[in-house]
Amino acid sequence: MSSPRFLRRALTFALPLLLLFSRPAAAGLMADSTMSDRWKLANGLEVRVRHVPGASGVAIVVAYRAGTSYEPAGREGLAQLLAELQYHSAAGDIPERTREEMGSLRPLGWGVQVNERHATLTEIAAPDRYAGVLHQVATRMKGVQPTAADLKQAADDVRGDLALRHFGRADLGLYYRVRELARGANDEQLLRLSSAAGLKAVTLAEATAALQKLYAPANASLAIAGDLGEVDVRALVEREFGSIPGGTAQPEAAAAMLQPVSRATPFSGLDHTIGCVGVFAPAIEDSLHPAFFLSMVITGPWFTNALGRPNPPLSSRFSYSIYDEADLVRFYPEPRPGETAPGALGSQLAAQLDKLAETTMERDLFETVRRSVAWLLGGDLTKAVKDQMRKQPGALGTLANGMAARALWKGDAFWDEYLLRFQTTNRGHSTFYSWLTDPQHQAALLFTPKP
């Protein structure tokens, strides 16, 4: 997830939850009349393509194994810094570009996102201009030339983003801090992370060397989704990317170890208590995870409907991103006024899920939900989703981001099997409610008004 400064100028990937998410996307014509293709260049670059006739743009996404898990000890913030430099620095005959300029340079959408595994760079172009944008993406992959001024600007931007993320806005503080606490972070570590203390010692030479190591074709995936017209995309990609030296693929990042925790802490600027319960999901490799994902797709909107939309600063009751954080589901119950015990959040979640467990879901609706979200896993697009992609280019960014993530994380065989399990599971929506309400699977964080 991007920081709020990213969000103000990044793509909007948000779709209604039931539209966010059947067959594996193998090469060829799919049942939804889109065309998919996937291959690997000789230099190691994984390429995924989805031609969506009539789409309002073309999303170009490059993901690199360059997330926070690849940061050396004492270099907090380095992953975000490198992503900023790769995206904004000059390359070849292409000049540097600033955050403030991106709205006019990429009016259909753009974004820089960093999670534990990947740094993901997105640009959306009009269908008649995407070949030129793809050329610029390839030029940056050949190597950017950051300056000392670029390094300072990127470091300042990252410090501002991380400070706002952890201590500047309560909604973002809940979102990010609950994960860090589950990973075992103490207060000192949170302060180091939020201040990007590790960037003080990063030199231009170190940053440049890290970019050359991590931002290479063998360590990347390229996803292109949208109306590609009559262009021979395979030939175009080979021409633009095929001659770039491959570099070395980094090992896949190890899964984070999460542990139960319960914490209450004051937060400046609040006038009422807010809280989050982060629930640890089954391992993505677990054969039941596709059923768990379907359960969450159903439960999230029902949980929101039951409690109603939260008051500011919160804007959601539920959050789950299978590609960014497949191991953590976030629920935002409504704390009682004046609540100071974080354990009460788990009790409130359990009480609400008990009510939802009694709700019967008709089979037709169950299948409709399943079909409407399968496209995020590589399945067919529904008519509603295709219509949205004709109107909202950001929806293409969601599609391409998933394509890039699957290619770089676990790979095609894993996700093809995952999709098949997702399509065939018959487990009910409440199958995992006992798991969700087990305190050993929870990290609870309560923010109280600071006196």
UniProtKB/TrEMBL annotation:
InterPro entries: Metalloenz_LuxS/M16, Peptidase_M16_C. Pfam families: Peptidase_M16_C. GO terms for molecular function: metal ion binding. This is Insulinase family protein. Residues 1-27 form the signal peptide. The lineage of its organism: Bacteria, Candidatus Eiseniibacteriota. Residues 202-250 form the Peptidase M16 C-terminal domain. Keywords: Signal.
